[in-house]
Structure formats: C-alpha cells, structure tokens
Amino acid sequence: MLERFELKVGVGIALLALSCSNKKPDSDKAAGAGTTAAAAAPESAGQAAGAEQGGANAKFNPRLLRRFKAVSGRFETGPAPSEAEIKLGRMLYYEKRLSKNQDLSCNSCHDLSHYGVDGEATSAGFKGQRGARNSPTVYHAAGYFAQFWDGRAASVEEQAKGPIANPIEMASSGDAAVRVLKSIPEYPKLFATAFPGEADPVTFDNVGRAIGAFERGLSTPSRWDKYLSGDNSALNATEVEGLRVFTNIGCMVCHTGEFLGANSYQKVGSVEPWPNQKDQGRFSVTKSESDRMMFKVPSLRNIEKTAPYFHDGSATTLEDAVRMMGKHQLGLELSEAEVTSVVAWLKTLTGEIPRDYIAAPELPNSTKDTPVPSGG
After folding, report:
1. What is the pLDDT of residues 284-323, one digit of tens each?
2. Helices and strands of the chain, counted as H and E runs
3. Last residue of some domain: 197, 219, 241?
4. Residue 81 to residues 89, 359, 372: CA-CA distances in angstroms?
5. Which of 157, 169, 241, 258 is catalytic?
6. What is the value of pTM for the model shown?
7. 88: exposed, middle or buried (C-beta count within 10 Å: 0-12, 13-18, 19+)?
8. Do 89 and 204 sit in the same domain of this protein?
9. pLDDT tens digits for 326-369?
10. What is the residue range of 328's domain?
11. How many domains, the chain?
C-alpha cells in the first residue's frame, strides 16, 4: 500500500503545501501552527513503514508523534476561574430563557451528552430558522486559536455571546438577557459570588465570561492520549496502520497538535474545487480576496461522533469525509482499504464524556417580573 503513496504523495503533499502555506493564524497563540508539508510529512514513506508494529504492542515513528500532544484537562489562557464562576457558567449554558422564545440554550445546538453537537447539517434556531453552517462541537473549543468556522471570535467567552444575539439563532440581545437574569432573584446572587467586587455584576460580558469558564473544562481524553503518553498497547496494529496512512498521505500537514487541527486557516478545495462555493468562509469577515474559501481547520477529536462533517455538513459519514479530503485537499482517490484504515485510527480519538461535569443543573424558577417568551 505504501508503494502507492510514494507515487502520489510527492504531488499531493506539494499541492497541499501551497494551500497550507498561504494563510497562517492571526493570533500569537497559533504561532508556528501553519507547519509546512516538508516539516510535517514523514522523512520518507520507507521510514514510516519501517516503524515497529506488532499486535497490541504496535509502535509508531516517535519523530512523528512529537507533532501531536495529549489533551489537557482544562484550557486556560489566564487565571483559573473560581468554582462559583464555573457553576454559574454551567447554569447559563443550559438556560433557555436567554433566547427570545425561551426554547433554546447553548446545549440545544451543542449537546454535551452527544459530544457537543446536534447531529444536524445546520441547526434549527429562532422560529425554526436554519443557519448556513454546521454547528461544531464545543468540546476542547476553549483551546482553539479562534472560534467559529471563520474565526470571527478570539475566545469562547466572546463566542458565547454571539448566538444569544444572533437573529437566526437565539434571537435575543445582551440587554434582554440581562433583564431576564435580573428578574430571577437567584441569578444576581450567583453573579455577585462569581464576580466579587463588581458594583453591577449581572452584565452580558459576564454571561460570556461565565459560560467560557465552564467550557474551558470540556475535555474528553481518549485512547489516543494514552498512546501519546507512552502506552503502546492503547492502539492495536490496525489502528496504528491507519495512523501511518494518515501521516503518509499528508493529512498531518493541517491536522496536528493537541487537537489535530483547530490551529490554522486553510483553503477548502485547495487541489480540487469544493463543490459548494456559496459560503466563502473567512472572506465574509476580512473581505480579503486571499481569504476566499478559507476556513478554520476543524479538530479531529471525537470526529467519529460529530457527523455530519465540514462547514456545510455535506458529508454524512466519516468514510465520505475522508474520501472528500483525499480528493479536494490532497488530489488523491483513496482506495477503500485506505479509507477503512484511516477511519479505524480516527475512532481512537473518541474520548470519554465528563458526565459529572456536564450534568444539567437545576435552574431557578421565573418570577412575575421575568419577561415571557416572544416571537412565537
């Protein structure tokens, strides 16, 4: 099988390098994430093929494993939040009264019990309206270099406020959200505890801060992390072979690091044009011609559980997603054996949901002063 790669990888990775080198992350956090194909690809197909393998003790080229990292338990960029802030954020994450019709919460589109997604190509919002993009998983998102498919928010704290005020999604506003929260006596007390010393802690910015504090603990360690930590028995020989195929065809150029992605923008359809050109990606934010069809590279963690795939939800199965990436990003028509092999490894990235941490909390009751649902 690797002989086939030696014929195609040179062309595939060279073309991919052109895509991957034309846009690096804007933030300092992602500095160095736009690895070139020459740096990220194996030294040779023969070296990767020569890595030791055998049953439960299968091993992989350690030089390539250095390009990955075991997942963290929390993803902080500053001082760790208090337990009071995390508790409040958990409540707000499940709080449907933050939406105009009081029927949608963060968890509606990013269901934590189902790996942070709703399983829809695009999510249903206010009055059943559908957005243009797939709702990505919220697990590990706090560690990403940017938020949303087009990177228009820098942090989960900023991102958390977006859907609340989006007319297609929750269709409320910052002021309306604050009015609801202040009308329920328990919430001002919780905000005062979470944000001590503030004269008026019930603010829309603090709503984002609290939800972000909660989301920064959404982590799902997997067998892959055990393997990266030195447990060679965590992956079997079939799964390690899938990892070899993944690296040899060039996928690791963009999908590397702790999250196997989520650290750069890349052009979708870099070798063969993407079928759906309606959404121009980051261009809608920057208006720069170089950003047409540029999207944040998604993380591959929990990819087995987060279908449908891509910004437009156009791939319904993981096998289809692998084929499409081979064709449009690498210029390769992958065989069924290759697809099956890669998928076997991708399934090792499925982690354990932190059931206790995400347990839906009991929310306080509304009062006579609480605004009623509006909009029908």
Report:
1. 999 999 999 999 999 999 999 999 999 999 999 999 999 9
2. 16, 2
3. 219
4. 10, 19, 32
5. 169
6. 0.86
7. buried
8. yes
9. 999 999 999 999 999 999 999 999 999 999 999 999 999 999 99
10. 2-71+222-349
11. 2
Burial class of 277 by CB neighbour count within 10 A (0 to 12, 13 to 18, 19+): exposed
C-alpha triplet 206, 115, 278: angle, nearest 5°: 85
CB under 8 Å to 316, separation ≥6 — which residues?
307, 308, 309
Phi, psi of 309 (to 5 degrees): -110, 160
Q: Does residue 367 fall inside a structural domain?
A: no
- Domain membership of residue 270 (yes or no) is yes
Using DSSP, state whether 6 is helix, strand or coil: helix
Q: Assign residue 145 the CATH number of its domain.
A: 1.10.760.10
CA 101-102-106 angle, 5° bins: 115
288 shares a domain with 336: yes
Residue 368 lies in a domain: no
For residues 122 and 166, give the distance between their C-alpha atoms in angstroms, rounded to a whole number: 15
Among residues 342, 171, 135, the alpha carbon closest in space to that of 240 is found at: 342
Same domain, 119 and 202: yes
Active-site residue, 169 included: yes
